[in-house]
Amino acid sequence: MTAIRNIVILTGAGVSAESGIATFRGPGGLWEGHRVEDVCTPQALHRDPELVHRFYDERRAKLGEVEPNAAHRALARLDAEWTGELLLVTQNVDDLHERAGSKRLIHMHGELKSALCARCGDSGAWEESLPPGSVCGNCGAATLRPDIVFFGEMPYRMEEIERAISRADLFVSIGTSGAVYPAAGFVQTARYHGADTLEMNLDPSEGSGWFAESRRGPAGVLVPEWVDGLLAQA
Ligand code: APR
Asked: What residues are paired with 213 via a beta bridge?
């Protein structure tokens, strides 16, 4: 086995579940009482901007009530101590990875604490509620929207992510159902380039069969154990 130097880690909603943030595909397939297509598509934003903005306002406000958990903290420790290349790619729009201290981080599905101008494409930090009609500081149009990658939109920084995966010796997926592409396909890209692959998830995911190893359990337990082991070997 080649020594591990370059690592790419993908996280999903499961990594934030123990902090009290609901996963997407929860009981009844609803996300906080809504069908995903009612709050997470460009069509929904066009049809009912009040609902969509309010939904993300509530999610953003909730961030003030939650804290990073042991899994976020372990990943931040790995980022700080790992001397090889490391990239943490999260599908999550919460800010718990950065609050735990992770630096080498990409939010591929956007961020609750960011606003995006639908007209000029400028984006920037946004902490408060974001009513429809909020004005873009860059172009002056009243077209700010939540900076969330909706279904049918292109995830952020895909070239960087693909490049990191192609160089990775180890690809690790944590707390994601493997239901949403392109993230669900990263494991196949990693394997194609010869990386070892590890999944940590509470339940079997749709992509479990692609991983060389799958560990079952809560991220708050599995991730610190894995990080301790990896740093002990390094
Ligand atoms: N520890 C580890 N895994 C957990 C935990 C936990 N404590 N709790 C739940 N899980 C697992 C579930 O078993 C499930 O497989 O996390 C996964 C969460 O899956 P989803 O809710 O589908 O979330 P995710 O995979 O991140 O969704 C991907 O879908 O709606 C879109 O854009 C949205 O980024 C999101 C994308």
From this structure: 198
Residue 124 is inside which H or E element, if any?
strand 123-125
Q: What is the pTM of this model?
A: 0.97
Q: Which residue has a Cα nearest atom 8 of ligand 1?
A: 14
Q: What order of strands is seen across the sheet that includes strand 144-148?
A: 123-125, 110-117, 144-148
Is the distance from the beta carbon of residue 45 to the nearest atom of ligand 1 less than 6 Å?
no
pLDDT tier, 140 (very low <50, low <70, confident <90, very high otherwise): very high
Q: Is 141 exposed, middle or buried (0-12, 13-18, 19+ CB in 10 A)?
A: middle
Find tokens 């990386």 and name the residue: 195
Q: Which pLDDT tens digit goes with each residue over 184-232? A: 999 999 999 999 999 999 999 999 999 999 999 999 999 999 999 999 9
135 vs 130: CA distance, rounded Å: 10
Residue 27's pLDDT is 64
Residue among 15, 21, 25 whose CB has most ligand 1 atoms within 8 A, to mutate: 25
The residue whose two tokens read 């909730």 is 62
- Find out whether the beta carbon of 199 lies less than 6 Å from any atom of ligand 1: no
Q: Which residues of 11-34 are buried (b: 16+ CB within 10 A; e: fewer)?
A: bbbbbbbbbebbbbeeeeeebeee
Beta carbon of 202 within 6 Å of any ligand 1 atom: yes
